[in-house]
Structure prediction request, 424 residues.
Amino acid sequence: MALQDFRPMQERCSNCLNCRWVPFDKLKSERFGENCPSIAYNNFMTYSARGRFQLGQTILDGDADYTETITELVHDCMACGSCDVTCKVCRYNLEPLEHNIELKVDAVEKGKTLPAQAGIMAALKQEQTMIPGSKKAQRLDWAKGIQVKDLFKDKAEVAFYPGCKYSYDPKLQKVAQAALKLLIDAGADVGIMGNADACCGGRALQMGFRAEFTERAEANIKAFNTAGVKVIVTPCSDCYHALKRQYAKLGLAIEVLHTVEYLERLIEEGKLTFTKSVNMTVTYHDPCHLGRLGEPFVPWDGTEKKIMNQVHTWSPKRPRYNGAYGIYDAPRNVLAAIPGLRLVEMDRIREYAWCCGAGGGCSQTLPEYSAWTASERITEANTTGAEAMVTACPWCEANFMGAVDEHGKSIQVFDIIELVQQAL
Ligand code: SF4
Ligand code: SF4
Prediction:
């Protein structure tokens, strides 16, 4: 699709601004009632999904162009999908997230990018990672010392795919190591992608670099198919969304599981049992790309119709991604199985969770805004009385840890895998 294909959607946005707020019946407090970081931070209507529809229309009409301010505004969206869920509470025929990303694609194709994006995309092209300064030759260093199959030398059923952040971030590599060891110890027939291991490209798509995403996706799909695996397991929520939803659109037919789903299965099958108590009160942060954006891709082949020249509808009925079937229970079930652990919930959870601030590449491109978004979530976590915030994504964990360090916020931050490891 191109931006002009979204014109009917731009025209039928009803200006209700549901895309700014948690739905009334889900609202727990005024303080944590907003759901879009972009308009909450900038406090200007054009930053909302509604404003983005109007901006897209104005650009198509030739009445606005990508000035420096508008370029930054377009890329200021975290692609967190929160507006997409709340819009669909009252509307059935709009796709705000797809439009937000298409606006970015349009800007990128016209050369309108943010300064930091040049270095990120150069790293993707040269080193197949979204993390500038990291080298392809060091991508597998995190797995040194772990006896695991290389899927291009040995066959295995499961591919463990850690993603860029876990592969390179020295503070987080221990999580990928622990996850892989858990799988091996539970008897999984697992391997890693060896020299074919590379960025999923998901964040490139979130930033509007669709051609670069497609290139990475096609190469990775070919590699997974050549490896002949039956399941791909990833501990990264961004990778999870890319593989499960976006790659499926491009033909990937292999089952994709997040590590929390795999751990939940192991617990249910009695292959993972806990022997120690973790006496701690925690709150769980739903990563956007595991939660509301973790729903599977449903193929659809139909046409858009207009009834009475007013209502847009689709024949046959089109799948509706409203976040209701994201991955929310698996992480909570894993936490519930850990002896001694108590879970207390924040005001905004499941499909209405507030973004960690790292989405859409914003932790790398717009760091102040990203840190504010993380800081808001930590403030919300603090109101629960929890000692720690737990999540299931390295980008969330890193952004929260950064906000704790920089803003003097007091809460511990863990990945679920770290707590599972403590309980063994
Ligand atoms: S994008 Fe959706 S929720 Fe936002 S103003 Fe338009 S119709 Fe309302
Ligand atoms: S995707 Fe997230 S940041 Fe972007 S407009 Fe929607 S709610 Fe706001």
Notes: The longest helix spans residues 210-227.
